[in-house]
Amino acid sequence: MPSLLIDQPVADQVVLANQPIEVSGSATDQSPMSVNLVTVQIDAGPPVKAQLMPSSPFRNRTIVDFSATILPSGIGRHVITVTATGTRGFKATQTVIISANIVVFPPCYPEQNAATNLSSGANQSFTNWPQNIQFNAPEYYTPKTLSELAYAVLQAEALGHHVRAFGSSWSFSDVLCATDSSTVPPTLIPQQPGAMIATSQLQASLQQELQQVLAPGVDATFLIHVQAGITITALNSLLDNLPVRQTLNSGGGSGQTLAGVISTSTHGGDSLVPPLADFVCAIHMVGAGGIEHWIEPDQGITDPAKLRVVYPCLASNGSIHYDTQLFRAALVAAGSMGVIYSMVLKTVPQFGLVQHRAVTTWEALQGPDPSLTSVLDGSFLSSAYGLVNLLDGTPLPASLGPFAGNRFSQIVINPYALESNDATLNGTPLKLYVGQHLCFVTNRVPVPIPIGASNPGGGDISSLDVTKVGQAARDSLGSNVLDYDIRFLNFLNSLTPNEDLSTKAALLVDFLAQNFDERTISAVITYVLRQIMPVGERLDVSYKLSDVLSWGAAIRSLSVEAMFSVPDAVAFVPQVFALVESYAARSPKNYIAGYLSLRFVGQKTTALLGTQRWSPTCCVEYAMLSGSDGAAEFVNDLQKLALGSHGALHWGQCNEVMTAVDVQNIYGFDTIEAFRQARGILSKNATLATFDNSFTDRLGLSAEGSIIIEELDLVGVTSDGNIWHTIRHTDGIWLGFGDVKGQAGNKGAFTAVAAASVAGELQLIGVTSDGNIWHTIRHADGSWSGFGDVKGQAGNRGAFTAVAAAGIAGELQLIGVTNDGNVWHTIRHADGSWLRFGDVKGQAGNKGAFTAVAAAGVAGELQLIGVTSDGNIWHTIRHADGIWLGFGDVKGQAGNKGAFTAVAAASVAGELQLIGVTNDGNVWHTIRHADGSWVGFGDVKGQAGNKGTFTAVTAVGIAVELQLIGVTNDGNVWHTIRHADGSWVGFGDVKGQAGSKGTFTAVGAASTPPH
Ligand SMILES: Cc1cc2nc3c(=O)[nH]c(=O)nc-3n(C[C@H](O)[C@H](O)[C@H](O)COP(=O)(O)OP(=O)(O)OC[C@H]3O[C@@H](n4cnc5c(N)ncnc54)[C@H](O)[C@@H]3O)c2cc1C
Q1: Protein residues with CB under 6 Å of any ligand 1 atom
Q2: Is 238 helix (H, G, I), strand (E, B) or coil?
Q3: Atom from ligand 1 closest to the CA of residue 338
Q4: CA of residue 446 relative to chain centroid, distance
Q5: Would the pLDDT of 228 be above 90?
Q6: In this model, does residue 57 exceed pLDDT 70?
Q7: Peptide bond into 32 cis (omega under 30)
Q8: Any bridge partners for residue 139, and if so which?
Q9: CA dihedral 994, 998, 1000, 1001 (to 10 degrees)
């Protein structure tokens, strides 16, 4: 009787669909019998005869190895059946089940069966929570693990889809929609939907993993690491139940997920601190191409070596970024950078809050205090507490805690004025405020954690009864008016039981608009606000008071929100009143049932696209019932009004009107460029459009078409006369140093070097110890041209000692210094021909004996900086017409830091950046602005760290950042970046990354596109 063993494939193995796979193993029978036939069958397909390879007999058994090739067609599970037949006709059968997929899953993932475990569906319906967006997603994934998430992204990409993650889907805009096409005009509901990834199963605490990845000395007590699909409610509860009770330092909402909140710059009313995004320390995401990214600011909290151990895919095909600019871009990215798997957040010790709330009118509040400081500092409410509740004339209850130290400020306004003929005002102090807009002012002040909560909060809007709401409108009309009673009764009778609460509410609003004046809608809104915002005192644990107002799932709502400086917000509010009025003045009338809410975020965010752009920022929201006449149109008009009033629209609220131009105006060109660069970095240099959607297309935030971020090419000379080349890729990884002389030929011992990018290729110029100059090109494919003799082409001006180069308009501009202190300029044209060397001092003036030079192409012109033997630095420009400006004294403009010996120059964002080395080994940085003014020299070592005595330096601008490389007198090479915001990265050891080739003495740098 034969027996069988299948070696390949193993059970549950994931293989590529529609690609042949080998099935192999061995079949055994008792000697002298043998197995003489093995067939392999996949699913119900025809049996395939396997090739048999007898192996040596073993004791009394004969063993044959078999192998056959089969084709798993289509994705999904496949059953492979192997049958062995012995010489006497006895058979043995074994089966193995495999899973065929369309992507190769990187081997670094611990769960190779992620594909089979991943919950997915095709053509599945998606509806957002507010129910204003609904579509069928061609692919819909619900990953439970990092492996499944990575697989979902890879699979969606392989199927040709763009991808969007969603959390609680509380957003109102197409920020939330995956869209496959960039050519179809953006619409709120996607015309070509892409793949949606639900994060509802990613809610776990990863605190144990955090302990394993932290850098030495980092205290984890007030750090929390969680999967990013956790809701704020669940996160708050998790934190409150830790051994040391903790909470988030900035609130807002609760049903939203952590990633959703951060990604859209969601805020609360924390008037002392920035929004929650600013408490994030690290982001772990799966980006385009299924590539994992771990992103932190320059000064990170983790140890990269430990991260690579705990998350092996970060080591094999992912990236760890300690990059403040990238981090700030990735914080508020509206789902466009990738799917956030987890985040590390800073927390604070748990505390209690006492809530004070009183009623006034907007006019009475901001008339005497236009900057609203009395709301922010708590003084308005502390004084209101001697008074009565304006709603009913009763005294306000005794306060439960202090007013000073307020950390939450909110003003909720009824956008309809108090009407003189509103009968519900009769007998209340509000009668005195007719013509003004009722508002509720809320403060929250930190107190010790209370043992128990005092006083309940209000109900949510969906708990309201339409009949009672209708009665409030009816009451505003006054009593004993038979006609009104009948019309209200008829209206209520016209509602059918099938209509949901939302529809009934919208019908009520339309009924009021069609039949009655504004006192009815004003009274209805006041009634609702009274129910959901009880006046008086509350005391509770911090997060239990974090909710602002809730519409509840049963009511379909719409909301427009924009962030302003306080003065702009105060000016915006009456414009909203006027817009509401204009809708009420229409024929037929439109009432917009909602309220205006002003909340204050105390500090400006650091997130590039964070909407909290002022300290403090006032967030003005109009939340309204959807479905009533005019509401949809009002939403658009209000967005236009906000944009026209210097507002930054909330990314996650209604946001259909904003354009790329608006975004540039609000955030500034440099910020948008920096954001798009970050998108480039996280999308394989803008080659993958996986996370582009209609929203990013409309707002000019798509990766596709964004700037190609070039790579840094560094060339260096060692004391043995060799030249070395390396590349720093955009992800910060360095290529090992390659031997340039081995590629371009050995022309002797090199002493100086320069590099420039011309037409996307690296051009290198080297000076040998005999005073000759040599030129070579590193082509896009990585091959090098043989060294050519520059003096043979451009003329022999003597023994060269220093050299500089810049690529301008597809040509190489080269400047050389000869040992007599003269400076020479030539151009290598695109056709390879050289201009004869021209005498720069003859054109720009003789400032002495030059010893060092640097060059950069700035705004299409050559800028040249030279150092003279007396330690001075000189600057000139060669205009596009070939005319040279007279040499200007840089020290006279940027300050005298001593005797300069070396210099570097780069063009960054259209301006010249200059770096000089003084003979004490210090490094200095200045900028020559486009208007010709110079910034005072700044101390680079003071910013990027003191690595010793610098002797040589080179620089290049990549996008809006300066990349600087310096050589110290011990032959080491150091790299730093100056970000667009002026901050510097600490010096990194280049030899530690690219290999030690000896003692470096000179360097040159350029940037070329990645190949
Ligand atoms: C009732 C209600 C109350 C609200 N209250 C407030 C408030 O007080 N303050 C305020 O500022 N806003 C508020 N909003 C707006 C809301 O906070 C934002 O729309 C928020 O983004 C919703 O979070 P979410 O988890 O539902 O995210 P979603 O709506 O699911 O997603 C929002 C964005 O985040 C992205 N995203 C989600 N998860 C991930 C992930 N894991 N990785 C990458 N990207 C992801 C999505 O692609 C999308 O671009 C409210 C909205 C509603 C409906």
Answers
A1: 129-130, 164-171, 175-176, 199, 228-229, 252-253, 256-257, 259-261, 263-264, 266-267, 334-335, 339-340, 548, 550-551, 650, 652-653
A2: helix
A3: 43
A4: 32
A5: yes
A6: no
A7: yes
A8: 122
A9: -160
- What Å distances lie between residue 901 and 871, 897, 950, CA to CA? 6, 12, 10
Pick from 983, 953, 984, 986: which is nearest to 968 by CA?
953
Instruction: Assign 705 a pLDDT band (cuts: 50, 70, 90).
Output: low
Q: How far is CA 878 from CA 692, 795, 834, 864, in A?
A: 42, 20, 17, 8
927 vs 906: CA distance, rounded Å: 10
Backbone φ/ψ region at 758: left (φ over 0), alpha (ψ -120 to 50), beta: beta
Q: Residues 344, 313: contact at Cβ < 8 Å?
A: no
> Which parts of 919-986 are beta strand (E)?
923-928, 938-939, 950-958, 961-968, 973-978
The answer to whether 766 and 752 have CB atoms below 8 angstroms apart is yes
3-class state of residue 670 by DSSP? helix
Q: Of all protein residues, whose CA lies closest to atom 4 belonging to ligand 1?
A: 253
Residue-wise pLDDT for 101-123, tens only, equals 778 788 898 887 888 889 999 89
- What separation in Å is there between the alpha carbon of 184 and the centre of ligand 1? 25
Looking only at Cα atoms, what is the longest distance across the chain? 112
> In this structure, is the dihedral angle defined by the CA atoms of residues 989, 993, 996 and 1000, taken in order, positive or negative?
negative
Give the relative orientation of helices 518-532 and 466-476 as an angle to the nearest 10 degrees: 130
CA 210 to chain centre: 22
Kindly report the CA angle at 414 between 411 and 420, in degrees rounded to 5?
A: 130
Judged against a pLDDT cut of 70, whether residue 553 lies above it is answered with: no
Residues in Cβ contact with 277 at an 8 Å cutoff, skipping those fewer than 6 apart: 262, 265, 331, 332, 605, 606, 607, 610
936-978 pLDDT per residue, tens: 999 999 999 999 999 999 999 987 789 999 999 999 999 999 9
Please tell me the predicted confidence (pLDDT) of residue 708: 63
Q: What is the pTM of this model?
A: 0.74
Give me the mean pLDDT over the 504-520 stretch.
96
Separation of 263 CA from ligand 1 center, angstroms? Answer: 7
Asked if residues 234 and 224 have their Cβ atoms less than 8 Å apart, the reply is no
Q: How far apart are CA 165 and CA 258, in angstroms?
A: 12
Whether the Cβ atoms of residue 414 and residue 529 lie closer than 8 Å to each other: yes
- Coil, strand, or helix at residue 944? helix
Mean pLDDT along residues 3-32: 88
Q: Tokens in use for 446?
A: 């930190």
Write down the pLDDT at residue 546: 67
**In the structure encoding, which two tokens stand for residue 526, read together?**
């006041």
Amino acid 960: pLDDT: 76
Backbone angles phi, psi at 893, to 5 degrees: -100, -40
Structure confidence by residue, pLDDT tens digits, 902-920:
999 999 877 899 999 999 9
Ligand 1 centroid from CA 970, angstroms = 53
Q: Are strands 195-198 and 134-142 parallel, antiparallel or unpaired?
A: parallel
pLDDT beyond 60 at 549: no
Among 133, 266, 532, 551, which residue has the most ligand 1 atoms within 8 Å of its CB, making it the best to mutate? 266
775, 779, 777, 750: which is closest to 765 by C-alpha?
775
Residues in the chain: 1011
* Ligand 1 centroid to residue 480 C-alpha, Å: 48
Q: Is the per-residue pLDDT at 452 higher than 70?
A: yes
Asked if 506 and 628 count as a contact pair (C-beta separation under 8 A), the reply is yes
HEC string of 71-109 equals CCCCCEEEEEEEEEEECCCCEEEEEEEEEEECCCCCCCC
Of the candidates 309, 312, 352, 347, the residue with the CA atom closest to the CA atom of residue 226: 347
**Closest C-alpha to 290, from 18, 680, 704, 682:** 682
In percent, the amount of the chain with pLDDT more than 70 equals 97
